[in-house]
Amino acid sequence: MKTPTIPIPITQIPLQKNIQLFLKREDLIHAQISGNKYWKLFYNINSYLDQNSQNPFIITFGGAFSNHIAAVAALGKEYQLKTLGIIRGEELQDKWQENPTLKLAYQNGMDFLFVTREEYRDKDAITQILQKEVPDALFIPEGGTNEHAVEGIQFMLNSETKRFDYLCTAVGTGGTIAGISKFAEENQKVLGFKVVDDHSLYNKVFELSTKNNFELIEAHDGKYGKITDENIRFINDFKKNFGIQLDPIYTGKMMKKIFEMIEEDYFPKGSKILAFHTGGLQGIFGANELLKKQNRELIRF
């Protein structure tokens, strides 16, 4: 993987407050390997290919609508790597073609292994079995979070990001906020907006970042992947008002919560806030399929 040469824009979101809010458009870094996924895979893939240039094989884990699965499949196609996705939910085996994320991953060359939710919880056991069959394969954890991923996230920070008081990101598996925390300036506060109800996240992030400059804020509406009517309205209004598309699982929930915190005067006057758009827009297609079946308002995309 190459370091992109295109500049990533930082766009101001106009507010009627004595606070400045900006959005760094990491979603524009690549058409399919978007946002934080690109940087989480950067060192994982490059260090692996340095040692395994012959018949490289990437194996990873994810759910039916996983941005990570979509990104790894796209990376495999672009760099001619064989990829295998271990997919949670054996019921998908006979109908994965109906799933927009898995269909796209398959079109990009990914093979699938569908496992039960119980089997999926023991990823170490699955890894041990497959390592015996393909010992030279690279195993990347769910969401791509590991030490290599944390190191790659440093590229989301640059000379421009140093001028902000707060750095904000959505949090799933914790790799992105760990990287931002690790490489942030000493005077910066890092805010992570949890989209999953996982009480182990703080310790996991701290172990990866080794800093206590971050705060985790609940933004999951009680369940990972839950999309409320209020979320949909916020995303559609945000697109209409600011011309920027948000996804319903990560960045949409983060931005909604940031707006609420601004109204609640969480941020001191004069604060400069930078939120990272971590991509994941491919998930809108799957979300809209579910919303359509429920006769609910769709995300305009």
TrEMBL record:
Its cofactor is pyridoxal 5'-phosphate. Residues 3-279 form the Tryptophan synthase beta chain-like PALP domain. The keyword ATP-binding does not apply. The modification N6-(pyridoxal phosphate)lysine is found at K37. Gene3D superfamilies: 3.40.50.1100. SUPFAM superfamilies: Tryptophan synthase beta subunit-like PLP-dependent enzymes. The active site is at S66. Pfam families: PALP. Keywords: Pyridoxal phosphate. One of its GO terms (molecular function) is D-cysteine desulfhydrase activity. Belongs to the ACC deaminase/D-cysteine desulfhydrase family. This is Pyridoxal-phosphate dependent enzyme. It comes from Kaistella flava (ex Peng et al. 2021).
